[in-house]
Amino acid sequence: MEEIGLAHGIFRFLHLLLFVYWLGGDAGVFYSSTFVVNPSLTREARLTAAKIFINLDMIPRYCMALMLTVGGVLAELIGITHTLWEMVAIVLLGPVWLAMVLIVHAKEGTAAGKTLARLDLWFRWIVIASILASVVHSEMVGRLDGQFWFQAKLVVFAFLIFCGLMIRRLLPPFSQGFRTLVATGATPESDRLMIEGLAACRPYVLMIWAGILVEALLGILKP
């Protein structure tokens, strides 16, 4: 039986917890969104579904924000070492990213919220670039020789962030139709916009689910 230390056990538990709530929360968001766009339901029922959809959507966002920090610390605990400045960056990344997610959500619809949303957008592109640069550098210097599974997990995570950015890019038609639903009630045009907006996002949602499953499998098998 494998024996692990307390810190290792706690961070492994947190890592698994983030995977579970990310995938489960995302599935719940997808399911509840089908009620929001269902024209056969009453406006009140659709708005109730929308409230569930919006609040539940925050859970996967929290999980993504914290995943690199928890995963980075766990990697350190299993022997994939980092320099001091790398560990400082890894530890700070999660709280900073989480704070940004919370503030953007709280300030949504305001001028400050729009500015922060643009900042958050660029922040995610920088995280993607940093992950890929780290993988390339590690491959060049042989730092992760024999740890292909870890490099693959990083690349897949960068892809998950990218999918989230694509969803954000394709979601405006849904948001436009939803604003009509909230303000005056649904129209055939607003329903069309919402349905088409969600349909455009669906492939990226499914790729996120697949990516999360691949991440979990890589972490278990460590091929």
The largest pleated sheet is described as: none
Proportion in helices = over 70%
The poorly predicted ranges are none
Query: How would you sum up the global shape?
Result: elongated
The H/E string reads: HHHHHHHH
> How many structural domains?
1
- Total helical segments: 8
Number of strands: 0
Report how far the terminal alpha carbons are from each other: 20 Å
Strand content: under 5%
Radius of gyration: 19 Å
Overall SS class: mainly alpha
Mean pLDDT: 93
Walk me through the structure.
The chain has one domain (6-221). Helix content is 84%, strand content 0%. It is built from eight helices and no strands. It has helices at 6-36, 43-56, 58-77, 84-106, 111-141, 148-170, 172-183, 188-221. The two termini are 20 Å apart.
